[in-house]
Amino acid sequence: MLDIKWSKSSGLDFKKAVLFMTISTFSFALMNVSVKYLDRIPTFQIVFFRCFGSLVLATTYILLKGIPIFGIKRRLMLLRAVLGLTAMSLFFFSLKYLNVGTAVSLRYIAPIFAAVFAVFFLREKLKKIQWLFFLTAFAGVLVLKGFDGNINTVGLALILTASVFSGMVYVVIRKIGVSDHPAVVVNYFMFVGTVIGGLLAISVWVRPLGFEWMFLLLLGVFGFMGQLYMTKAFQIAKTNLVAPLKYIEVIFTISIGVIWFQEAYTIYSFIGLFMIISALVLNTLVKKD
To answer: Is residue 134 within 8 Å of 279, Cβ to Cβ?
Structure first.
């Protein structure tokens, strides 16, 4: 995220925050379905284009703002980059096996793993009610796997592992704290992703055809737009009001997946997804209370 200011001043424009968060989640949804569309392209090639596009935009932003580009806690930022790259790659891999809406919903289990890791590594405490929400979310996963025939075991394993690594990312970011500008933290991630993704993509490189070029080039733009407008939303409204809005991404992604890819969802799909998202939204509200 870029330039986050946790303002508590009066006169916060919640309606404008909703608009910004809607733009953000729609941008991320477009990025998700673009990756799904690029099914023919190897995952690491997609990672390269995703990171390279955002690297160019983020670096330009940092230079224009005169922000020190190398930062202070470099080792932690490199660790965050490696963990983030692993999570991103596993998520992209999972899209080859799962409906895009299902994958995005399951990815949002990451805050649960982050909360558990924070208990052990950051000595943070959890409220008892949060454990109930966590169990509800995992029960939703069991409903998906147990009753939804569209859930591929390999895809489920990939996305859950991606969520674990994303949870680690959140903990590392907390350790970095405010010592480094958020744009610099993101830029480390994009740089590492560009280098490693590019190197791993060389041996499996596939020449993009037609619209594939457009979607590959737009990955970084969609990702950057999502980050930018999410930041704007957090700048002008309280966190506990804005944070639950990020789950709008699931609605956008499922809708586009159904229309674009004719993805099918059963009643058990929606029951499981509702259990997961509602539990995570409630956890966000309780955590910020």
So the answer is: yes
pLDDT tens-digit readout, 159-174: 999 999 988 988 888 8
Distance from C-alpha of 27 to C-alpha of 119, rounded to nearest angstrom = 32
Strand, helix or coil at 43? helix
Task: Report d(CA 59, CA 53) in Å as an integer.
Answer: 10
Virtual CA dihedral for 217, 49, 257, 147, nearest 10 degrees?
180
Query: Is 88 in a helix, a strand, or coil?
Result: helix
Q: How far apart are CA 289 and CA 274, in angstroms?
A: 22
Which backbone phi and psi does 5 adopt, to 5 degrees?
Answer: -125, 115
Sequence-separated (6 or more) residues with CB below 8 Å from residue 7: 235, 236
Question: What's the pLDDT tens digit per position in 34-87?
Answer: 999 999 999 999 999 999 999 998 899 999 999 999 989 999 999 999 999 999
Structure tokens at 236: 């002008």
Which amino acid appears at position 156 of this protein? Answer: L
Cα distance between residue 117 and residue 123, in whole Å = 9
Residue 89's CB: how many other CB atoms inside 10 A? 22
